[in-house]
Structures are given as structure tokens and as C-alpha cells.
Design brief:
Blueprint lengths: L36 H33 L8 H20 L7 H5 L2 E5 L7 H27 L7 H6 L1 E5 L14
Antiparallel strand pairs: 1-2
């Protein structure tokens, strides 16, 4: 009599040997999920850049006016502006990519959504790290970061590979039905 295993198929339907689940989004089976993603990401980035810049500009203007009113004493707050700008960007990306839509405001306008490679939605730390790695990679490899997306089927950029994320086109996904009203 031979032992055929415990019968436990694991969380993903495979044998419970640490099998890795397949990618949730296959560009061969669902090419429409990745159609136009790179172009949309560029425009989403520009929209997000405006969203990030408006409060920062208001902050600098406030400090400048406050400095005039306090005869120069308020200008000592300028040293806080840059760290506050970085913190604002990290919180914005973390909260929006980790929010219920898994997308920043620009991504929502452009019908994009962040998912992990296995299909789960984003969360705060993943969104914050996505922003940090994006800005670091752009700082060092500016033109090359977009070229990486041209040579893979999922249109992933360098920081997407590092974090295990995928940006998909949500305009082709089936809309969810509205919940029934209970009065």
C-alpha cells in the first residue's frame, strides 16, 4: 500500500509544496488589459504631478507671504517645505494606491489600476514603495524606465518588476453590479 499524500491541495489548488501561483493577468489570454497602458500611465503621471504640485505651491506661497508679514522670521519655515513635499507624495501614493480603487487620481481618470502579480489589490505600504522606487529609478534611469515597458507583454516598468505589481486597463473589465438596496 502506498501513501498518496495528505489530500491537502493548498490555497491555490496545487500540491502543498510551496507551489507558486500563476500570474493573474496573462497578456496572451487577455491582451486588452494591457492595451494602451504605457500611454495612459504617462498621462496619469502628469495628472498626478499636478495633484501633487498644487498643495506644494500653495505651501511655498503661504511661507513666502508669512515671511513678509513676520519681517523675515517666517522664511525659516522654507527648510520644512521640501521634507513636507516628499511626505505628501508618499502619503498620496500610499493612500490612493492602497485605497479601494487601487489607483491614484490620475490613474482613475485614465482607467488604470494597480494589482499585484497574483491579482490582489494594492495596500498602503505597496503604494508608498511604488512611489519611492519610481522616483528613485527615474532619477537614475530616466529614459530607460519607459523602454523596459516596451519589451514585456504586461507593460511593466522597472519598479513594477521589483515590487511584483501590474498596472492594468480597467476600462475593459466587466463592471460590477450594483448592490441591492435594502430600505
Amino acid at each position: 500500500m502506498s501513501y498518496s499524500g495528505s489530500g491537502n491541495t493548498g490555497a491555490y489548488g496545487g500540491a502543498d509544496r510551496g507551489d507558486v501561483p500563476p500570474h493573474a493577468f496573462d497578456p496572451d489570454r487577455e491582451p486588452e488589459l494591457f492595451r494602451g497602458v504605457l500611454t495612459r500611465r504617462v498621462f496619469a503621471f502628469l495628472i498626478d504631478l499636478i495633484v501633487l504640485s498644487v498643495p506644494v505651491v500653495f505651501g511655498y506661497v503661504f511661507i513666502a507671504v508669512f515671511g513678509l508679514l513676520t519681517l523675515g522670521l517666517g522664511w525659516m519655515l522654507f527648510w520644512l517645505a521640501w521634507p513636507a513635499s516628499v511626505l505628501w507624495a508618499i502619503v498620496y501614493y500610499g493612500a490612493s494606491l492602497g485605497g479601494p480603487h487601487s489607483a491614484t487620481l490620475g490613474m482613475r481618470v485614465m482607467d488604470l489600476e494597480l494589482r499585484t502579480w497574483y491579482g490582489a489589490p494594492g495596500y498602503f505600504v505597496l503604494g508608498a514603495m511604488h512611489a519611492v522606487l519610481f522616483w528613485v529609478s527615474v532619477s537614475f534611469l530616466s529614459p530607460l524606465i519607459v523602454l523596459v515597458g516596451l519589451f514585456n507583454g504586461r507593460r511593466r516598468l522597472l519598479h513594477d518588476f521589483v515590487l511584483g505589481t501590474v498596472i492594468i486597463n480597467t476600462s475593459v473589465r466587466a463592471p460590477l453590479g450594483q448592490p441591492a438596496r435594502t430600505f
